[in-house]
């Protein structure tokens, strides 16, 4: 259910992320070319919607193909990228998660909220997930808690989706600081299971801004409902959102009210990480 935005946007996305907090610019001093190129490759693969070959990566990032190949081979040896032999393509590797865990520990360990997520999942019989914006167009699932019920919804940590997909997409859009046209561009990249119009989406984003939460009523996946709350920083923007997903038959206004109250409390606990992890 992930979107496949035009491949020509990948390099553009990396070139225009300064105001999104993804790029680092050193004011003075000499940059080490190989290191800078390796970082560009990692950022490129982190937003790529599908595995990419070395020729395409080198072309999009304007790198020498031989240099690009050697950097990719080194990154693969250290598990920062994964090489898929069948298609001779590359995807981002799990080694980057080790670095991310180190970064979160330096500012307090975000995994300390897992017991609270587990409690919400068990008390309400839902799946609770924490999503992080990883680029202007993508978000990633970074923590998950599931109910012990025999039949449950399970989502894989590490999966990526278009930024405004689902209930989390609505609350992230509500606190994105983006213009109407920018929101429209990201909306057009989404493949909905049960599509809605852009006008409906905008109305739901405005309601999410007013109420502090959003509902996805089967648009993400038929038969599934989810509610989400954004983790809003002092600047009014959000890089994180918490989500509770349940089967449509489980949903009613009373249950939703209790789940949303717990999600809002969880979001308050996550406020120190509002800038992202």
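^ Assign residues to that structure.
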């Amino acid at each position: 259910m992930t979107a496949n935005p035009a491949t020509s946007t990948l390099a553009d996305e990396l070139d225009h992320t300064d105001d999104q907090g993804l790029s680092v610019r050193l004011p003075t001093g000499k940059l080490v070319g190989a290191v800078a190129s390796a970082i560009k490759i990692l950022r490129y693969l982190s937003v790529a919607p599908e595995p990419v070959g070395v020729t395409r990566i080198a072309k999009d990032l304007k790198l020498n193909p031989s240099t690009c190949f050697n950097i990719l081979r080194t990154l693969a040896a250290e598990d920062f990228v994964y090489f898929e032999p069948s298609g001779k393509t590359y995807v981002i590797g799990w080694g980057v998660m080790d670095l991310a865990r180190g970064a979160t520990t330096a500012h307090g360990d975000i995994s300390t909220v897992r017991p609270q997520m587990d409690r919400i999942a068990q008390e309400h019989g839902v799946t609770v997930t924490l999503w992080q914006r990883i680029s202007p167009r993508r978000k990633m699932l970074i923590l998950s808690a599931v109910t012990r019920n025999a039949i449950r919804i399970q989502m894989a940590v590490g999966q990526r989706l278009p930024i405004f997909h689902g209930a989390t997409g609505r609350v992230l859009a509500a606190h994105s600081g983006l213009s109407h046209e920018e929101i429209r561009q990201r909306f057009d990249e989404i493949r909905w299971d049960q599509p809605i119009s852009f006008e409906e989406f905008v109305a739901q984003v405005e309601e999410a801004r007013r109420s502090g939460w959003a509902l996805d009523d089967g648009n993400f996946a038929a038969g599934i409902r989810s509610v989400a709350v954004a983790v809003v920083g002092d600047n009014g923007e959000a890089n994180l959102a918490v989500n509770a997903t349940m089967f449509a038959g489980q949903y009613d206004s009373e249950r939703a009210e209790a789940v949303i109250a717990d999600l809002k409390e969880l979001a308050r606990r996550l406020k120190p990480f509002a800038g992202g992890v």
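Residues 1-27 have pLDDT under 50 and may be disordered.
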